[in-house]
Amino acid sequence: MESIKPDSSLSDKPVSRSSFNKMNQIDVFQPFKNIDNVELDSPKNPIDGLPWIIDGLAFPKGTEFRGKYKGYFYYGKVSGGALMMNGKEFLSPSAAAMTITRSSLDGWLFWDCKPPGASSWINIHTLKQMKYQKALNL
User: Fold this and answer.
1) Which of 13, 29, 34, 133 could form a disulfide with 138 if both were Cys (CB 3.0 to 4.6 A apart)?
2) Residue 66 and residue 51: Cα distance in Å, rounded?
3) pLDDT band for position 45 (cuts 50, 70, 90)
4) How far is Cα 83 from Cα 72, in angstroms, rounded to an integer?
């Protein structure tokens, strides 16, 4: 079963764009221009260092994910080019969310993420919207 960690000290409110730490959030999640230049963690398993690339966003290795369902937080982490939860690999946010909820839902709305070095969580749907706004120069 997925990791269950109830934590009432964590806010249920989504993180606003301004409170997501001062690093350039969109640039952290942009796909790599040249995947051959990615530094890999281990020559024995070169896929370990790959980001999870989904819908034009690249979530770096080590990016933490959390989703709340029925009062409990469920956690995952990017590793090997996928979202990993309890040793299982997920290639889409919705597939990972449906494993938890056992129902169909939009995983982009379900998951918050926190990249390595960040101090705040942000909903991945918000990141996706910010990416498209940046692309349109809005």
Assistant:
1) 133
2) 17
3) low
4) 19
Closest CA to 97 of 84, 82, 110: 110
| C-alpha to C-alpha distance for 56 and 54, rounded to whole angstroms | 5
- Supply 104's token pair: 């169909």
Centre a 10 Å sphere on the Cβ of residue 20 and count the other Cβ atoms it contains. 20
How does pLDDT run across 1-24, given as a tens digit for each residue?
A: 455 555 444 444 444 444 444 445
Buried b (16+ CB within 10 A) or exposed e, 28-62: bbeeeeeeeeeeeeeeeeeeebbbbbbeebbbbbe
Q: Which long-range contacts (CB under 8 A, 24 or more apart) does 30-39 make?
A: 30/57, 30/58, 30/131, 31/56, 31/57, 31/58, 32/58
**Rounded to 5 degrees, what are φ and ψ at 78?**
-80, 130
